[in-house]
Amino acid sequence: MLPWLICALLAAVIALLLVRLWLLRRSLDEITGQLGERLSQDTNSPIFLSTRDAHARRLAAELNLQLKELRQARQKFQQGDMELKNAITNISHDLRTPLTAIQGYLDLLEREEALSPNARRYLDSIHNRMEAMTRLTEELFRYSLAADQPEPPREAVDLRRILEESLVSFYAAMVQRGITPEISLPEGPVVRSLDPSAVSRIFGNIISNALKYSDGDFSAALDSGGTVVFSNSAHGLDPVSAGKLFDRFYTVETGRGSTGLGLSIARLLTERLGGSIQAGWADGRLDITVAFPET
């Protein structure tokens, strides 16, 4: 009878271990599923477990503590980001009135005939600085608007047509800089469900940035898959500075008149539309790639 008793005890121990293992796996599955939900949703609900296992409950308690701290940090970040956007909006509004007044006085001074050559030179310098400050104010206002706007309405748009229109709008600026653009477009339309004004803004900001950094050339290529590559020579850049071009307020010394917001707005709008944007620099060339894949 002794061997049978030993076998029965072993079977009972094995059965108990299997039950504990099953309960542990179920607890881990519960934690995994609820943790994913808590991270993706803005909720104060903690992780609940159906098991009474002490180890699993300690793990859940620790995760709930970390989730609480994460929610608090996220709320502080969102509050700070909202305060920054509001401050930017208010500052841009407050600057518009005095800037307009200064611009008016500058225009009156330029009409004076008794100005010396040095005064004319100083006036031109003030005028250029004034224009740069006006551009910065406008970009600040546009950035705050773009950051606060809800999901834009979508409609069927042709990326080929919007790219053509964007290039035409910068034709005069290219001619002024002696740039003959190289354009590559697919034969047929490339239709996506997007906000046309946002796409036009994205392309325009990228082209404007390219003209600032270009060493005398520019190309744009769109393929049938919805990917656009803007490329130009930019020996004043490097891989590090190219990777920072999408950062807010980041500028490069060679980027004259740059506010550091144009490409930040382009990235914000691109990601909001479900696309991707990235910059790369190699062998003296800057490539900015924008992709709107089919969904």
Description:
The protein has 295 residues and is of the alpha+beta class. The protein has eight helices and seven strands. The chain has helices at residues 2-40, 54-110, 117-148, 159-169, 171-176, 196-213, 239-243, 262-272, and strands at residues 155-158, 182-184, 191-194, 219-222, 227-233, 276-282, 285-291. The strands form two sheets. It has a five-stranded mixed sheet. It has a two-stranded antiparallel ribbon with strand order 1-3. Strand 4 and strand 5 form a beta hairpin. Helix 1 (2-40) packs parallel to helix 2 (54-110), helix 3 (117-148) runs parallel beside helix 8 (262-272) and helix 4 (159-169) packs across helix 6 (196-213). The protein is elongated and about 115 Å long. It starts with a helix and ends with a strand. The mean pLDDT is 81.
* Rg on CA atoms, Å: 29 Å
Structural class: alpha+beta
Distance between the termini: 70 Å
Unreliable stretches (pLDDT < 50, length at least 5) are none
Shape: elongated
Count of alpha/pi helices: 8
What characterizes the major β-sheet? 5 strands, mixed
Tally of strands: 7
Taking strands numbered 1, 2, ... along the chain, how are they ordered across the largest sheet?
Answer: 2-4-5-7-6
Share of β-strand residues: 5-15%
Question: What is the mean pLDDT?
Answer: 81
By oligomeric state, this entry counts as single chain
Q: Give the fraction of residues assigned to helices.
A: 55-70%
Order of helices and strands: HHHEHHEEHEEHHEE
Please tag this protein with its features:
five-stranded mixed sheet, 8 helices, alpha+beta, two-stranded antiparallel ribbon, 295 residues
